[in-house]
Amino acid sequence: MSAVVESHRNDLDVSYAVDFSRDREPVKQRSRFPEYRRTGSAPARVNGMHCRRSKRWTWGSGRGARMQNARAFAGCLAVALASVSASVLGVTIDYAPVNNAGNPANPATGLGAVSSLFNISKYETTNSQYADFLNSVDAAGTNPNSVYQPSAVTSGTTFFNPITFNAGASSGAKYSVGGGNATKGVTFVSWFSAARFANWLNNGQQSSSASMETGAYTLSNQTSGAAVARNPGASVFLPNADEWTKATFFNAATVNYRQFPYKGGGTAPTAVTSGTGVLGTNVANYGAAQGQTTGLTNVGLYANAKSWYGLYDAFGNAGEFTETASATSPADRVMLLGSSWRLGTGGVGSWTSNTASNTYLTSNFSDSMGFRVAAVPEPATIALAGVGIVSLAGLDWLKRRKRKAVAQQASVSQITA
Description:
The chain is an alpha+beta fold. The protein is built from eight helices and 16 strands. Helix 1 packs antiparallel against helix 8 (379-416) and helix 4 (64-82) runs antiparallel to helix 8 (379-416). The model is unreliable at 1-9, 12-38, 48-62, 74-88 and 380-392 (pLDDT under 50).
């Protein structure tokens, strides 16, 4: 009878060690066989953690609880990392996944069919993000390849860039944004400047001007002329016309293209130029009065007005560059989609999913043209998520097996008694 009681107590000690993250027995039990822990072979009867027959719940030699904790920590870390939506460096991009690969094209334009999964920024690139890019690639303020444009002159009127340059500021801090413009969409960029920003993200936001010349696009100091094709293996890039069209106009639930880039999308959005957030699902920042010079709003200001995939400001605010060259215009033009805050209410019909024919010079910039970026889903993130799920599942299986073993021992003890 005493042997049965001793066996049951050992099982409880093992359970205690596991439940409280200990890889050995309580002190009282451990001190019973000190000679075994120091030298020589095991005594005739050794119970608890040092008994091979009672270690079925461990994965190693006396380190079961420790290994469980390590696997649980790795699992939680993997899940946490997998939930990160973008870079953990200076600029963070909030991406929306665009699924439903192999979707059909819009029959009216032939655009929108995408054969693979991709991510696209929910928001237009902001002044703050672009200023971080400038301070990283141009710490000394030499403005390589004209990535910074201080102003634009249109019809004799000068429009000033909200990103300001201060030659006297310290290295790496010469560009700044003031006047409440940090989270407004960046403008005053050419197609080549937008491509350089994508290269910089693609290369991990390195602090060198060389990091913006290759990656998604091999630019080789080019600042005008035909747009450069995307390189194979690019991870961050400007969306092409198909990707942009799908992300903004396609509705996977109904498998069709909405006329305007909102979940409803059947009617023209209501023009809102007040700069205040509204709750409508079909509103946009456009229709500004002639002569207005500062019509941009904070990105995502109209919280309920987004595409089926979750993109904001796909109509109005800033027009957006794609990487797709124009099929009908000279070679130095690319497709520009999304319209801008300057669009008059009478021009809405030129910016629907069925009329995608707007182009823009690759070397031009203005106060109403910007961009957003796209990216491939990261395999490393997907793998980490898988590791986390498998690790947590394995830990749960291990605990269930231990409880089952303890229950079986208790059953045997009752029968013996």
